[in-house]
Each structure stands twice: as C-alpha cells, then as structure tokens.
Fold this sequence. Notes:
By secondary structure, the protein is of the alpha/beta class. The protein is 47% helix and 14% strand. Strands 1, 2, 3, 4, 5, 6, 7, 8, 9 and 10 form a 10-stranded mixed beta sheet that branches.
Amino acid sequence: MYPSSSSSFLSSSSPPLEALKPEERGLHLIQLLIKCANHAASSNLNLADECLCQISRLASLHGDSMQRLAARFASALAFRLVKNWPGIHKALNYDTKRPKLELDRAHVIFTKAFPYLSFAYAIIARTLLQAMSAERVIHIVDLGSADPKLWAPLLQSFAALPDGPPHLKITCVHSNKAVLEKLGPKLVKEAEALDMPFQYNPLNVSLRELTKDMLKVRSGEALGFVSILNLHVLLAQDDQADAQFRPKKSNIDVKDCKQMGEFLGMVRSMSPKVVLLVEQEAHHNLNHLVDRFIEGLHYYSAMFDSLEASFGGLSSSSEERFVLEEMFGREIENIVAWEGVEREERHERYAWWMVRFSEVGFKPVRLWLDSMEDSKKGYKIISQRTSLMICWNERPLYAVSAWTC
C-alpha cells in the first residue's frame, strides 16, 4: 500500500479526484496527508483545511486499507488543529462524542486475529524457562500486559520441569483495577490445577508510580521482568524543556529521558536474571510533527495492510476490524495531535532501546525459540539471537529483546 520511496510523495500533479484508480488514489492521499501535516506544523489553518477537504473526498472508514488509514490520519490532523482553539474544542464536546474504546476487548481481538503477540509470548515463555529452570523460588514482574494467554502456558511449562514446579510469584502492574481482578482468579485456578505453589501480587499503579518497595522483592528470589508494548510511555516528557541528546557513543542520537533512565536504573538495581521487552519497531519519538507523521504513515500502513489481509476487502464491515482500527486510530491521534507529557505513544526502534538498556548496565542475552512456525500469510520472524523482529511482508512491526545484568 505504501510507496517504497518518500520522494514519490511530492508529485505536483492533481488529477480529478473522481477519476483516480485505487493505486493513484492511494498515492494522492499520501501526498495530501504529507502536505496537510506540513501546514498543520506551521499552524496554517486555511491551507490545512483545503487539504482536509480533498482528503475527505477520497478517504473512508469503510474503504480499502489506504482509505481507512488516511481517514485516521486526517482525523488526527484535524484534532491537532482544533486543539489550537481550546474554546472551540471544548464547545464541540469532542471527547464525549467519541465512541468508547474498550481497550481490553481490542487487545483480545488483536491477539486472536494476529500472530504478532502469540509469537512474542512463545519466545518470552521459552526464554524465561531457560533462564529460570534451575531456580526454586521465582518472582516475575509483569509490567502491564496482564494477559492470561502469556502467563497460563508459562505456569504449565514450569509445572512440567523434571524437578517439579518451583514456587512462582507473579506481580502484575496495571493502572486498571478491573484487569487485575480478572487476571488473578484465572492464574490461581490454573496453579491449583497444576498443584503448583503460586502467589499472585496485583499492583494497581501506573509504571510512573511504581517504586522498588512496592514490588517487595525478597532475598533468594530469582527475579524477572516482562514488558509488552508498555515501556515506551515512560518516554513522555516536556520536549521543549528536555530536548537534548546524549553524547554520541554510536551512530545513533538517543533523546535524553530522565524518567526512563531512572526506571531502568531501578530495575537494574534489583539484579534481575532477565528482562524481556516487546516494543513497536518504529520511530515515533521525534520532536518534529512532519518527521513522526511520515514515520507513522510507514508503520501503520503495514498494520492496516495486515488488517485488510485478515478481515477481507471492501465488503468487510467487521465490527472486530473496526475495534482494532479504532485502537490504532487512538495511537495515531496521540502521535500526531499531542505534544509534551500527553504524547505517550513514543515508540522507538530496537537500536534505540539497546542504547538505553546498555547505558544503565544491562547486556543482551539469547532469546530462545524452537522450530516454531515463523512464516504464515505474510508474517515472518527474523531472529538475531538476542533480538528478533516480527514482520508483515518483510516490514518489521515488533521487536522482542532480552537483557540481563
């Protein structure tokens, strides 16, 4: 769906909109979106409005994948523009008119419809098992996923160890109390069925609020951390005050973030045997709107293409597909429309995470995967021993990595 070269964005031709074929329409939409992002970045409301008028004639929440993607990015740009006038924004009751997004349901649908997280879960489970198989008292901290599809199979794997099951404690950190209350009974029931000594420790706090004392790590526990698509929220900061880069130790400029450094330092101070990280393989933590807008188009075009492949073409009006697109739409809106501490979707590529982890004293460790199916309907895993990329049609979407002290 997405052109291979950004230079193709800049065509000056403007054919009649009604006469465009699907491929031409997609290219024209990208050109209009980039143009509109430039106008929005310079706060030129009139020219941005002209672009949005043209985009609205071509984009559709019920069209092909490019039309759906364009509708989400156009909405995010419009929201950014309206936010410049707080009175108008408030009078429109924007937030109260939006359909309520049930994130928990969206995540369930996402896990069911796509193998991305299933691949990651399998690798996390095997790596944890390898790192902890000789330990008799294990404490694993779940930094926000709270997904029984990750933890229940892991309990089963530990229960099947030759020396019998270890004592396992899972601390789950989540800002939604209902999610914690839902997960706990499932894991306790699974542990009882396996006759496995088990402790569930729910922490109803955000990652920003989490402290070392809350985790109650005891002497003799083999400690592990797992973060799945959550750690990047700690990169949110006041970009105007904190826009500085660390001295180059490689060919990568990594934006300084005190909050992230302190959090990783806290984790490092507890000497975990392994820290497992899953993050979007994208670079949306850029100060300039147009830069991250183009990065967002590249990344989410692959996501919407995979939705198209999974849910069907133009005739598809699947409610599940709409829920997922709404979830991605909220991410796109946060990337495009918000700034400062409110912009939490600051995804960074594995190379940037490697710098951040290394600077506080972590080193990469091997990921474990067996002969699992690594290619299916365009999905593929590219493994580099200490990291791997989960791809759609050769485009990396998620990175999995493991770290130790």
